[in-house]
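User: Can you predict the 3D structure for this chain?
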Amino acid sequence: MTGNEISGRTYPLKLALAVLFIFNISFSGCGSGKDRVAGIKAGINTLREQAERVIQKRASLYAPQKFLVVDYYRIYRKLAYPLPVRRIDHPPITVESISPYPWEIWMTWDLEERINSLGWAGEWFGDPQYRSLVQTDLKALAGWPSYNVWESPHLSIGHAVRIMAGAYRSWSWLDPELKKDIERACARVVDNHADWFKRTRMNLTSVDQIMNSPDRGSLTHNIPVIANLALCMAARLSGHPLREALERHSLALILAELELRKNGTTEGVSYDGYILDFVADWLEEADPESRSAVLDRPELDEMLNQSVILAVPGDILQFAPFNDVEPREMPFHASAHAKFARLRWNPRSAWYLDRFPADCFRSDALAELHGLEMQGAPEPPVPGALEGLYSLVLRSGWETEDLAVAISASNSLSGHIQKDNGSLVIGTRGFWLIDDPGYQQYVQGEEREFTLGPTAHNYPVVNWQTQKVSEVKRLACSDMGHSLLYAALDITGGYDPSLSLTRVTRQVWMSNKNLVVVADRVIGPGVRNIGYCWHAHPKAALWVEDGACLIHLDSADLWVQCPGRPLNGSEIKRLPGTRGQVSIHTVLETGKDSCIWWIFNLSDSPARYTVGDNGIALDAAGQRFRIADPQ
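Assistant: Here is the predicted structure, written as structure tokens:
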């Protein structure tokens, strides 16, 4: 790989590798499955107690530490940075196939969490030890020689500035001389990138200029957006002469991000949430006109709503694992919900925040929720057939016993959106029983192959070739009545033209809370075989009986069947590179016009079925399903 495609452009590899930044804080108590299903469930007005409990717990863990321990779990390394942290650099530690590795991103992530936890504990409880530790850490941070190790502004600037600006604004007990140090540090951040800004960004002050720029992809990617917003916040705090120019450019960037969402451009829940988290911080001290220009845009709610519609029933934290996501390690979207709920009351966000596990919020989000007041009743979302920025979702609801199917459907060229259109996950009882890797590994090896190769997803893999581009046509997403939901996609354009495919469609039905039927029609003169790889949840147990495969996890029993093609034990495989998933992996020999059915049945036994009308109709569980004419 020589680069990572971002909105039609290419970043150099060393920057593309930094783009993933899947961060590593392991919040105490933020477990999985049943551990999180209960969430808070206490109401927004009681969140003050929850926030104080979690902050006190974190502060008590951080206080005695002599080292900031950063878990780079993606590459299976841990580093111990002596406290207080006095600089950022690239530690001379080899990471196979990635040089240099973006160590500073994870480090500033953890440093931000440490300082915020201790700082808010010092604010709320008046603890002198916590306050002293914060001032020591902040003094060291304000003295860093540099806040960036890359040629252009990067994420380390975003977090370093946000730490200092948030502390300066929030905690009145900071030493006056320390506040002056912070002012000087913020001025230095802007000074160090002033020439870069004047040369590349200063004249881009309108949405049209950004949208029409040949560099639009690199302008609107989360790295430069977050870095530019931080530069603007640094200029505000320090009274820098470039402030007004940074304000104009920052507003244009934010509005361009929202404008791009109109055509489905997205970086997924995690990275869209990351952008919105910083947008909310920027809005905190924006002028009223700028604030209204952002808060009045409907695309803002659409971006926030992604984490709602894609959440697994029974566990609001775990959204559909398409593309580059790690819900526990990257809860920025939840922070965005919290911050925007205060900036502009949102009853849907209130519903979401009420269910989100308190132990899994970042500390700055807990500080927001600590002072959030109920301005109306939370509003639960409406289930059914739902369209998102990069997905179609069929769901009966959000409670534990509900059922949801999320289907990847995106034309976004973002590097964090994988080429997996049509791939789906099936969830209930707090788990995605039919799962997906949910990220891409950048280190070369078996794990990278698993996350991006032909066995990564469950769309039909034709002649053992993966999809090459993100291209999809949404044909249907509707409620057909009688508890039957339906979605259909044309995914032909995603495949390599050398396959000479005439049409590839995937149709999905969800019935009641127990049945999902998938029908694939693949037409093309050169089609020889079609591969499928259905990943089970890493904690699931599997069993094969009478040509069907059982995926069993806690109280859920999901039977998987391929009508006319009995499954057997040889197709149950632990593929190289997985993080625990066991998969149903089968390759079907086919002809130039193939209709392939799959049945997923939550029941004590496999579904009874018959296939008719030359393979385009299926009777299963007392219902008839028919493949629509692909022409």
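The chain has a mean pLDDT of 91. The first strand starts at residue 3 and ends at 6.
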